[in-house]
Amino acid sequence: MKIGVDYYPEQIDSRMWKSDAEEMAKIGVKAVRLGVSAWDAFEPRESEFYMKWFDEIVELFAHYKIEIIMCIPIDKPPTWFFEKYPESIRTSASWRRNRNGKHDHVCINSADYRRYALRLTENLIRRYGKNSYISAWQVMNTPEAYACCCENCAEGFRKWLMNKYENIEAVNSVFVGNAISGRYSEIKEIHPPAFYRRAWRNPAHTLEFLRFESESASEFLREITMTIKRECPSAKVTSNLDLDSDYPDIYKLYDFMDFASCKNYPSVRTDSEGNAENSNAFRLDLMRGAKQKNFYVMEEISGAEDIMSPSLKPGMLQGYSLQAFAHGADTVIHSRWRSSCFGEDMFRQGIIDHDNIKGRRFNEFTELCQTASKLSAVTGTSIESEVAVMYSYDSDKAFEIQPPSENFSYMGQLRSFHDAFSHFGANVDVVSSKADLSRYKVVIVPSLYVHDNKASESIYRYVINGGTLIMTGRSGVKDEYNNCTSSVLPSAYRELIGADVTDYDAVGNDTATIKDFSGKTYECSQWCDILTLTTAKTYAEYDDGFNKCCPAVTMNRYCGGVAYYVGTVCEKSFYEDLVGNVMMQTGIPKLKDLPDGVEVTTRTNGRDEYIFFFNNSGRYVTIPLPKAMFSMIESKGKSELELRPFAMDIVRK
Fold first, then answer.
1. How far apart are CA 429 and CA 287, in angstroms?
2. How far, in Å, CA of 268 to CA of 243, rounded?
C-alpha cells in the first residue's frame, strides 16, 4: 500500500528539488509521478530534445529510493506544434478550433499529432526504459472520446463505417431504415452528428460516432503501449482516466494495459449536519472492474481544486485515500506536492502551499504516510465479491443521447443498487456486459437499454444455473444499433422476468407511490413501467394514479434461479429493503445497524481478511464489533471502533 505525489520539477526552482525529495523520503512517500505535462520541457522546439534536466531529477529520486511513475505527456502538445499543424486542434460542433487551451485540445485522429506523439514516446522509453526505479509508465493523462468534428475525424469515421458495414446500403439500413428522408447516396455525405442540434441527432448515427471516437482513443493508446513494450517488454503500462470527462469504453481501453488508473476527486461539500454529499465508492469499484483486479489512483484530491472550491475538511485528505485502498487501490498518488505559482492550476492546492509553510494538509498527509506504512500485511490482498452490478458502455451512451425522462440517470441506477448493498457491508464488483457472472450470488443489471447478444446469453445462463438477477426498467428497448426494437418490452428478457411492459409513463420529477408485498410504501419518480404478469408474481404495485394496483416490481422463478424486475426509480429506503431481502434469500452476510455514512469493505489474501470501516460523515460514530479484533491502525485489539469524522480503521478478522 503506497502513498505518492505528483511532482512538476519543470515548474519548480531546481534549487528546491533536493530538499523536496529529502522531505518526501523523510515522511514516507513511496512513489512520485513525473512528466505529466512536460512535453514542451522535453521538446521546447521541434526536434530539439532536452532531457538532461530530467536525468537529474530521476537520479535524485532514485537516490532516495522513491519509485517513479513515468508519464508520456502526449495529451497536451507544445504551442509550436499547433502553430505548425493547426488542423490538429479539436473542432467543436460549431466548426470552431480552440486555440491553446487549458487541457486536452488535440484531435486524437490527427496523423501529424500521432506521429509526433509516437516520436516523443520512443525518445522517452529509449532513454529511461531500463531505469529500475521507474515502476510504471502512464500513457496520456485523462484520455477522452471527445466528439471532434474536424475533417480528420469525419474521414476517419467514414472509413470506420465502411470497414464495419462494407457498403452505403448497409449503413442506410442501420441509420435510416425505412424513414422517408435522410438516406445517403455516398459515404462522403456522412458527417459527425455533433454538427446537428441535439434533438435532431439520429440515435444510431450518434452512438456509432461515439463508438468510433472511443475505439480511436483505445487504438491510438494501444500503439503507444506497444511502442513502450517493444523497447521494454517488462514495462508496466497504464493510463489515467477521468470519469467526469468523455471517457472511452474503459474495458477496451485497459484491455491491452497492465492495470487501470484513475483520478479520484470526491466531493468535499457537506450538508447542514456536516455529512458528505455523496461517496466515491461506486466510482472506485467501477475502476477496479475495468480489469477486475486492483488499480492505482493517479490523482488523489489534496485540497481545493481551484479558487471557487471549498477546502478539504479535517480528516478528508487521509480518509479518502484510505477509502481508495478499501476499494482495491494499491497505490494512491496525491494530486501535487506543491501548489503551482503559475498557470491555470495555480489555485489547485498541493500538499504544500505557495508560501512553503507546512500546514494542516501537510500534517495530515504525513499522518497518512505513517498509516500506510502500517498496512504491509494488507499488501497483496484483493476484493472478493458475491454481488456484481453490470455496466454497459453502450447503454450509458444511449441514455445520454436520448434521456428517457428528466433526471432519469443510467449511472444513478447503478449507484442506487451499489449503495444499498454497501449499506450492509457487502463487497460489490462493477463488471462489464461481457463478464463471467457465474461466481456471483446476485447480479444487478440496470437498464440494459442497448441489446447485447453476449450479455443476453450470459444473463439467461446465469439465472438458469441458479443465480439471482435484478433488472430494471428500460431494458431491451434498443437493438445493438440504438434503434428501437419492435418486440413487446423488455423484448429479449420477457421470458426471464415473466412479465410484459404494456405501457409506461415518463413521470420525470413528478412523484408516485408504490406499495410492496408487506404493505410498506415508497416514493418513486422519473419512470413508471406498467406491467402485465405472465409467470411472475407482484413484489410491489403502484398505490396511486391511473396505474394504481398495477405491478411495479416483480419476482419470477426461472429454471434454477430468480429474476426480479424493478419498473420504476425509487427512494433510497426501497433499494435497501429490497437488497436486504435478497441478501437474506441468497445467504450473503449482512451487517446490521451500521451508522449512516459508514462504509465497510473487506480485502483478503485467501487466508486472512482485513475489514475497512470508513466514517464518510461529519459525526463521531461508535461501531460495536461481534468480537474483539486487531486494529491495523492502532496496533491493538478492540471490541468496538470509535471513528472521528472521515476517519478509517482497519481490523483483521
1. 10
2. 17
Query: N- to C-terminal Cα distance for the chain?
Result: 19
Query: Residue 478: helix, strand or coil by DSSP?
Result: strand
In 319-386, the DSSP E strands lie at: 329-334
Indicate the pTM of the whole model: 0.96
- How far CA 126 is from CA of 62, 115, 122, 450, 591, in Å, comes to 18, 17, 6, 44, 53
CB 137 within 8 A of CB 35: no
From 443, 355, 433, select the one nearest 397 (Cα to Cα): 433
Look up residue 378 and give its amino acid.
Answer: V
Of 358, 328, 344, 343, nearest in space to 264 by CA:
328
Cα 37 to Cα 73, 337, 549, 550, distances in angstroms: 5, 15, 60, 58
For residue 588, give the DSSP letter: -
Tell the residue number behind the cell numbers 449503413, with chain if given.
171
Q: How far is 268 from 128, CA to CA, in rounded Å?
A: 38
CA 4 to chain centroid, in Å, comes to: 21
- 3-class DSSP state of 309: coil
| Cell numbers given for 378 | 494488507
pLDDT recorded at residue 67: 98
Single out the residue of 577, 588, 508, 489 nearest to residue 539, CA to CA: 577
**Cell 443465480, located at residue:** 467
Which amino acid is present at 462? Y
What distance in Å separates the CA atoms of residue 198 and residue 211, rounded to the nearest whole number?
17
* 450 to 300, 454, 472, 478, 623: CA distances (angstroms): 34, 12, 13, 5, 43
Question: DSSP 3-state assignment of 78?
Answer: coil
Return the C-alpha cell found at 428: 460489490
Query: What residues have CB less than 8 Å from 132, skipping those under 6 apart?
Result: none
Distance CA(468)–CA(324), nearest Å, equals 29
Is the Cβ–Cβ distance between 652 and 322 less than 8 Å?
no
pLDDT along the chain (653 residues), means of 10: 96 95 98 96 96 97 98 94 92 70 76 98 97 96 91 96 96 82 89 74 93 97 98 97 92 98 92 79 98 97 82 94 98 94 84 92 97 95 98 96 93 96 96 96 98 96 98 97 96 98 96 97 97 98 95 98 98 97 97 91 96 95 93 93 96 92
**Percent of the chain as helix, strand, coil, to the nearest 5:** 35, 25, 40
Decide if 48 contacts 123 (C-beta within 8 A): no
Closest CA to 408 of 489, 553, 507: 507
Q: Which residues pair with 652 in a beta bridge?
A: 610, 630
Quote the CA–CA distance of 73 and 54 in Å, as a whole number. 14
Predicted local distance difference test score (pLDDT) of residue 392: 98
The 537-542 sheet, strands edge to edge: 428-432, 387-391, 442-445, 468-472, 561-566, 551-558, 537-542, 499-516, 521-533, 568-570
